[in-house]
Write a structure and sequence with these properties.
The chain is α+β, with helices and mostly antiparallel strands. Among the domains are: 88 residues, Phosphorylase Kinase, domain 1; 182 residues, Transferase(Phosphotransferase) domain 1 (Transferase(Phosphotransferase), domain 1, Orthogonal Bundle). It is built from 16 helices and nine strands. The longest helix has 28 residues. It starts with a strand and ends with a helix.
Length: 397
């Protein structure tokens, strides 16, 4: 193949080989542009349905561009073969670096760049389905690019995710993909979590010497916490990794942005991850992001429990206030002296109401109830004899 011209491209060397085909280094003759050309394996390029799907994916990716994504330029059909023309990367793969160095000291930073690419592609409905160190490229300036978006989708439709997979791919595959279910955003994030585990600890979380053992480990085994492998790994970093590789989709990160936000908080608290556009402009005043960041890092399960408890408290308080309100009387009762019967509302006009006659000033009013009883005559006679002066005055009067 070296020296052969494919359309406007000339193949100048071989870069590598994988399950999807062989990758060559090429050169656009007229534009003098270096490219990478992937020659798809015959089982893909000679199947009309597969060819149509590959071409469809290539057209979608050729319309978009991102600094952390290996861009697709073109595709060429020739002699029954299908060639995918991509951006040529001068650098090395993450797979080669891990084989050489064992682990990466800047694992979180590299992972954030990977998540930036995934966030961009997921927003456009493109799931990678085959995230692994062999698909992560390092440029000469240290920047990171993810390649082979969309190609694994068509490979999966061919059944390659169930049989004939290399162990290197199974090591990073999500449990639902192993069960033959449809891959999703959280499936890609699971693969990123496995890759981050390896970058941080120097080993994969789920291994084995056969496909069966590797698949069984993904489905059933619990990973060793990263801080038990390397005490220098913080518990916060370890919890982020373990959340990303949870067995159930609902227990993992649901977006690449959330995953990157937690890693960014470890790297530089309060700083936004690189290449992630902000959803809202900067605001002055109260730093709500700093206040709410700890809450955002809480497991969603505990947040849901807290919200349910708060809702129950509010409901109980509302019922208590309602019952208390019902016990109160509609017409409040006041304690007062009994009132006298009210006078008739109207009197006959023929009977005038006499004016009250005032009592003499020096004369007390004596009511029948208060009228003194008559004294016995014997007592009066004795009293008059005792006081002759008083008796004489009464007689004179």
């Amino acid at each position: 193949m070296i020296g052969k011209e494919i359309g406007p491209y000339r193949i100048t060397g071989k870069i590598g080989q994988g399950g999807m085909g062989i990758v060559f280094k090429g050169f656009h003759v007229k534009l003098e542009q270096e490219v990478a050309i992937k020659v798809l394996a015959p089982e893909f390029s000679q199947d009309p349905a597969m060819r149509d799907r590959f071409i469809h994916e290539a057209k979608i990716q050729a319309k978009i561009s991102h600094p952390n994504v290996v861009n697709v330029f073109n595709y060429v059909e020739e002699d029954g073969n299908l060639f995918l023309v991509m951006e040529y990367i001068r650098g090395d793969t993450l797979e080669n670096r891990l084989k050489r160095d064992g682990r990466l000291p800047n694992a979180a930073t590299v992972c954030i760049s990977m998540l930036s690419a995934l966030d961009f592609m997921h927003a456009r409905g493109i799931i990678h389905r085959d995230i692994k160190p062999g698909n992560i490229m390092f440029l000469e300036d240290g920047s990171v690019k993810v390649m082979d978006f969309g190609i694994a989708k068509v490979a999966g439709e061919k059944g390659q995710t169930k049989t004939g997979m290399r162990l290197g791919t199974l090591w990073y595959m999500s449990p639902e993909q192993i069960r033959g279910e449809e891959a999703s955003v959280s499936s890609d994030l699971y693969s990123v979590g496995v890759t981050l585990y390896q970058m941080a600890t120097g080993r994969i979380p789920f291994g084995g010497d056969s496909e069966y053992k590797v698949m069984k480990a993904h489905l059933e085994e619990k990973p060793v916490p990263p801080w038990e492998i390397d005490p220098h790994i913080s518990r916060d970093m370890g919890r982020i990794i373990l959340k990303a590789i949870a067995k159930e989709r609902k227990d993992r990160y649901q977006s690449a942005r959330d995953f990157a936000a937690d890693l960014g908080a470890l790297e530089a608290p309060g700083a936004a991850p690189a290449n992630f556009s902000r959803s809202a402009p900067e605001r002055s005043g109260i730093d709500w992001q700093g206040i709410l960041a700890p809450l955002c890092r809480l497991d969603r399960k505990y947040l849901l429990i807290a919200l349910l408890c708060l809702g129950m408290i509010l409901i109980i308080a509302g019922l208590f206030m309602s019952l208390r309100h019902k016990k109160e009387s509609v017409f409040p009762v006041t304690k007062s002296a009994p009132s006298s019967p009210a006078p008739p509302s109207s009197l006959p006009s023929a009977l005038p109401v006499p004016a009250p006659v005032p009592a003499p000033v020096d004369q007390a009013v004596v009511t029948p109830e208060k009228q003194p009883k008559e004294m016995p005559k014997k007592y009066v006679q004795k009293k008059n004899q005792a006081c002759p002066e008083t008796a004489a005055r009464k007689a004179a009067s």
